[in-house]
Design brief:
Aminopeptidase; eight-stranded mixed β-sheet; globular
Amino acid sequence: MHDPAPSPGITAAPVIETDRLRLRPHHLDDLADCVAMWSDPDVIRYTLGSPSSPQRTWLRILAYRGHWAMLGYGYWAVEEKSSGRYIGELGFADFRRDIQPSIEGMPELGWALAPRAHGRGYATEALRAAVSWGDSHFGQRRTACIIHRDNRASFRVAEKLGYTILVNAAGDEAPNAILIRPPSMPTRQAPVQPQ
């Protein structure tokens, strides 16, 4: 198996700021908020399917930090700048998924936000910043994301980022769709609403 080339010199998540959000490395004190998010029915419905234990969530945070150390990319904690509160996490990973078609060698974009952050445009805002970072660090590599077929909100966000469906799930045994984004694909800007 071929390891994708890491981004040289990057061993921890860089801090990225948007108008309303701060993408930053996970901290030890994020654990309680992460456990709460990964136990919330609105979050796990399209992701894990069952609540994440504190131990499983702790291992997830360690894996996020390890991605940065080993691959030069990974996940960020997302913080609301106005309150300083943790509201979710997102980023790129290599989960070594045994799926067909294979996404081996493609950084996989993923995201989850706490329900209190839903419906505010935070996912799109934060993901645009992450994808822009990826465009400047992944060269000519495509990226992928995997979305549960019933998660309409995530499909809308992925479309804004330039992802298109490669494979759409057909049955209960495979409820996810695989989406692909070409390298350095411009993200679609939201239409301007008249005042």
